[in-house]
Amino acid sequence: MAPKILIVTGDAAESLEVLYPYQRLREEGYDVHIAAPTRKRLQFVVHDFEPGFDTYTEKPGYTWPADLAFSEVEAGQYAAVVIPGGRAPEYLRNDPELRKILKAFFDSDKPVAQICHGPLLTAAVDGLAGRRVTAYPALELDMQSAGATFQDAETVVDGTLVSARAWPDHPSWMREFLTVLRAKSPVT
Questions:
Q1: Where in the numbering of this chain does the DJ-1/PfpI domain appear (predicted)?
Q2: Pick the catalytic residue: 33, 47, 117, 170?
Q3: Helix, strand, coil in percent for the chain, rounding step 5
Q4: Considering the entire predicted model, what is its pTM?
């Protein structure tokens, strides 16, 4: 049986940051499940840049069904967790079920992949203190407040924690995450 990977997300997650790791990890042979606050069809978004804007814009993206609710997740059944960005982490960090799930991954030193605004979730469970991370550059102060050393790089690996800035960094992010994942939970 293939190791299971959990993706935790919700409405307004960045479409590419959910679907790229979902497909890439399945291609690698992992059994990937998407968890959200409830079992429902999630509405993802697309963030992009427009000339003259000081920040990114947001447009509706793909929809995708959540396989299970956070309350149904048994973290011990999963080899790793992926935390996409977008706006979803802003409100998901307040979910006590999700915080319990993420804490279990950090307590067990299982691989964690986070990207963009995803580190807001790991900060909420004190998973960044003393670690090196990257995130969407606007979160530099948030990462420092969480006790992390922020690095503006495509991908930062700190033990089993693999972080990236945003979807343009996908190739480097997944390459490094798969290196960690294969060492901890290879597909056999």
A1: 4-178
A2: 117
A3: 35, 30, 35
A4: 0.97
